[in-house]
Structure formats: C-alpha cells, structure tokens
Design brief:
binds hypoxanthine; binds 1-O-pyrophosphono-5-O-phosphono-alpha-D-ribofuranose; binds magnesium ion; glycosyltransferase activity; Rossmann fold; globular; EC 2.4.2.8; 4 helices; alpha/beta
Length: 179
C-alpha cells in the first residue's frame, strides 16, 4: 500500500495541527449556536472524528453518504445520495464537513439540498481544497490545506475504495490508476 504513494503531501502531525486550528475558529464562530455538523461519507469520516473533538461548543452530528467518483479519478458529474440525514435541518445552523473539494460538484449539490430544506445557515469546512480543478464556483468557509492538481489518497480519501486508512495524505503514483 505504501509503495503506491509517490509523495507524502501532509503528514499525520501536520493534519492534526491544522485540525486543531480549524476547531478553534469554528468554536469561536459557533458559540451559543448548537450547530448540526454533517459528515459527508465516506471520505470525511476520519476528518469528522478528529475535528469534532477540537470543537468546544455543544453540537449534534449526522451523516450523509454521497458518491460521484465510483472507481474513477474524475467526477462522473452525477452526485448520488446513498444515505440521507436522520434529522430535519429546518431552522438549524449546518456545518458540512468535507475531506476534499475538487470539482465542487458534490458540495454545490449538497448546499442546494440543505438550503431547499430551509437550513438557517450552511457553512463548509474542507480539510483539503484543490481549486485548480473547480468546474463550479465554490469557496469553503474554513479550509485546511490547498492541494496541487494531483489525485491524492489517504486520511479518508480513496482510489477505488483503497488507501482510506493511510494516516497521511499523499499523491498516488499515476501507474496505479492508469494500469
Ligand atoms: O468536489 P468534487 O469533485 O465533487 O469531489 C469531492 C468529493 O469526492 C469524494 O467523494 P466520492 O464521491 O469519491 O465518495 P467517497 O467519499 O465515498 O469516496 C470526496 O470525498 C468528496 O466528497
Ligand atoms: O484527489 C482525490 N482523491 C480521492 N478522492 C477524490 N475525490 C475528489 N478528488 C479526489
Ligand atoms: Mg472517493
């Protein structure tokens, strides 16, 4: 598994340091608001678990599973809801937790769904942002690291469901997905 990685972009320690900073910003902004924090499965599962430990205000959590990449390295352009939320979002302050924003299609779709369900506010925290690949305009409210235009894996992110358990984020060797 490790031999399929070309370069490590951010180590486990760098990721944890960044999450601490993000948690502090979110804690300050959401004082007294009891936000509903939504994890976008599967990719954001690790980030969600580490982030909520760093948010120091009362909150609730829920999960939504969506997919648009399948076994490819480019978005299919069609976002499918595989699992919906368990609770209504009407009147709630929502924080969407994403591992990565690439084309922006997943998030623009989700924000639209949540706004149509009358959320009071919707903000986005993304650990990784790949602005070079955007096809729809979208800027997260809280960003961890900006990434180059490369397909990355680890810390929750997969290629064909593999590599999610790597503790760091790295560039996958192109021969792995082109072979
Ligand atoms: O900005 P975009 O181009 O839409 O890409 C970002 C989305 O793609 C990945 O999910 P994926 O659809 O691969 O599902 P997964 O989280 O189950 O891996 C990732 O976890 C984000 O949710
Ligand atoms: O670079 C990526 N890696 C894994 N999954 C992804 N989903 C969007 N971009 C990526
Ligand atoms: Mg994926």
């Amino acid at each position: 598994m490790y031999s399929d990685i070309q370069d490590i972009l951010y180590s486990e320690e760098q990721i944890q340091d960044k999450i601490k900073e993000l948690g502090e910003c979110i804690s300050a902004d959401y004082e007294g608001k009891n936000p509903l924090v939504i994890c976008v499965l599967k990719g954001a599962f690790m980030f969600m678990a580490d982030l909520v430990k760093r948010i120091a205000v009362p909150l609730e959590i829920d999960f939504m599973a969506v997919s648009s990449y399948g076994n490819a390295t480019k978005s299919s352009g069609v976002v499918k809801i595989i699992k919906d939320l368990d609770v209504p979002v009407e009147g709630r302050h929502i924080i969407i937790v994403e591992d990565i924003i690439d084309s922006g299609l997943t998030l623009s779709y989700l924000i639209d769904v949540l706004e149509r369900r009358n959320a009071l506010s919707v903000s986005v925290v993304a650990l990784f942002n790949k602005p070079a690949r955007r096809t729809v305009e979208l800027e997260p409210d809280y960003t961890g690291y900006v990434l180059p235009d490369e397909f990355v894996v680890g810390y929750g992110l997969d290629y064909a469901e593999k590599y999610r358990n790597l503790p760091f984020i790295g560039i996958l060797k192109p021969e792995v997905y082109s072979s």
